[in-house]
Amino acid sequence: MTPDHPTSPAPDEAGPIGPHTIRRFTLSNGINLIVQENHTSPSVVMEGHLWAGSMDDPVEKVGLAVFTASAMTHGTATRSFQEINEITESVGASAFFSAGRHLVGWGGKSLTEDFDLLVNVLSDVLLNPAFPEKEVEKLRGQIITGLKELEDDTRGLASREYRQMLYGVQHPYGRPDEGTLESVPSIARDDLIDFYHTHYRPDEAVMVVVGDVAADGVYHTLEKRLGSWRPAANHPPSGIPTVEPLTEQRRTVRTMTNKTQVDIVLGTIGPARKDPEFHAARLANVILGQLGLMGRLGQNVRDVQGLAYYAYSTLNAGLGPGPWSVRAGVSPESVDQAIDSVVAEIERLRDEPVSDEEIEDGQDYLTGILPLHLETNEGIADTLLSMEVFGLGDDYIMRYPSLIRSVTRQQMQAAAQKYLDPYRYALAIVGPYEA
Questions:
Q1: Helix, strand, coil percent content, the chain, rounded in steps of 5
Q2: Environment class of residue 167 by beta-carbon count within 10 Å: exposed (0-12), middle (13-18) or buried (19+)?
């Protein structure tokens, strides 16, 4: 299939990234290719997404998507794991595969002169993974070791327990991407092979290339290497099961007497990335637990009251409704008081309009982080991939400042009232604390 040439002027490297700089192509097998030329340094980054993730894990084999993605670079039909590493490292390049809840991410980076080599290696890994038995078992051991280490990590355990309570174990969002000590040993090599053949498909996949390259040349190189790849099965991406908001307070305590600090995670189900309240909720979250030394939580719970070693909030909006969470590390004797103080800050955000100064500081923060992110090819590629996955439009970067500046205090308060509930939340407590 011929490339889709833009009708707008050629890319202007001095201007913002937008429809006039982004080049779009479609490979003959349906892969969507996006190219952003950036000739400021002789390097190139390639990143892609496939619609395959832990959403597709069988309940009894949680961790299969992550295991499969991790095994991809451990050997192909023609190259061993060691040979793949030697080829890339010899020219200072890198290649990766990883899996999340909905997507498998893959890609790499290299000098411009080694772009063809990078494409050659990545396409070989993508099309011809061998899943060598010895490498699979070695990788299984590494995953199990990591899961055992998690059992001694209060922060990690609090996050896992919290997500399970928030969504429930029957929902894929409530299950751990990396699997469990029970599921990973049951995953066979044939399971990895079947997952690859079933879910790794070129149709609706996205690739982004950013760097010192010519867009047309990138298209022809990738069409030659990947254009003939066809899906092995007709398996559409998994849909997102309905996410129900909490109707009660859920609380779990995991006592670990060998620790000195208690880690807590408290929160609710927030918006999806494409929900109309997202930008208002994001700005409210910045004020609650991100600004400066972690917003109001850092100022009041940690600094003024001295109840926490750290305290901040996160909003993880994705394709589905993500967690809106507060995290804190506290001493055992301060747990109950710290929780009360966190809930009080949530109530204040819901009940009292934020100040003009907080709005302006929050908007300055959010409008300032995107240009910083776009200073590297990796940051540009990440942003363009996100824009494509969420359907934000090629002009999103140009519109972004006005989207943030247009959020009002009334919209922020409404978002906080919709998603944050001081009476219905999930709370995980892990450390030297007993209920």
A1: 45, 20, 35
A2: buried
Q: How far apart are CA 160 and CA 274, in angstroms?
A: 25
From the list 338, 179, 332, the residue with the least C-alpha distance to 265 is 338
What is d(CA 211, CA 96) in angstroms, rounded to the nearest whole number?
18
The per-residue pLDDT for range 20-76, each reduced to its tens digit, is 999 999 999 999 999 999 999 999 999 999 999 999 999 999 999 999 999 999 999
What 8-state DSSP symbol labels residue 303?
Answer: I
Q: Could you give the percent of the chain with pLDDT greater than 70? A: 95
**DSSP states along 67-102:** HHHHHGGGBBSS-BHHHHHHHHHTTT-EEEEEE-SS
As a whole number of angstroms, the distance between CA 84 and CA 270 comes to: 41
Q: Which residues contact 312 (CB under 8 A, 6 or more apart)?
A: 289, 290, 294, 295, 297, 298, 326, 327, 328
E strands in 341-417: none
CA distance 219 to 396: 23
Per-residue pLDDT tens over the stretch 119-149: 999 999 999 999 999 999 999 999 999 999 9
Q: What would the pLDDT profile of 287-314 be if each residue is shown by its tens digit? A: 999 998 889 999 999 999 999 999 999 9
Q: Is 109 exposed, middle or buried (0-12, 13-18, 19+ CB in 10 A)?
A: buried
- Given pLDDT bands bounded at 50, 70 and 90, which one contains residue 16? confident
Mean residue pLDDT of the chain comes to 93
Query: Can you list the domains of the chain with their CATH numbers?
Result: 22-226 (3.30.830.10), 250-431 (3.30.830.10)
Structure tokens at 276: 């109309």
Q: Which residues contact 107 (CB under 8 A, 6 or more apart)?
A: 45, 46, 47, 48, 95, 96, 122, 381
Q: How far apart are CA 263 and CA 150, in angstroms?
A: 13
Q: Comparing C-alpha atoms, which of 294, 289, 282 is closest to residue 318?
A: 282
Q: In Å, how far from its chain's centre is CA 155?
A: 18
CA 379 to chain centre: 13
| 93-79-207 Cα angle (round to 5) | 50
Q: For 194, which DSSP code?
A: H
Question: What one-letter code names the amino acid at 149?
Answer: E
Query: Which among 146, 118, 185, 160 has a CA at the least distance from the CA of 325?
Result: 160
pLDDT for position 15: 54
Count Cα neighbours of 168 within 13 Å in the Cβ-side half-sphere.
9
Confidence of residue 236 (pLDDT cuts 50, 70, 90): low
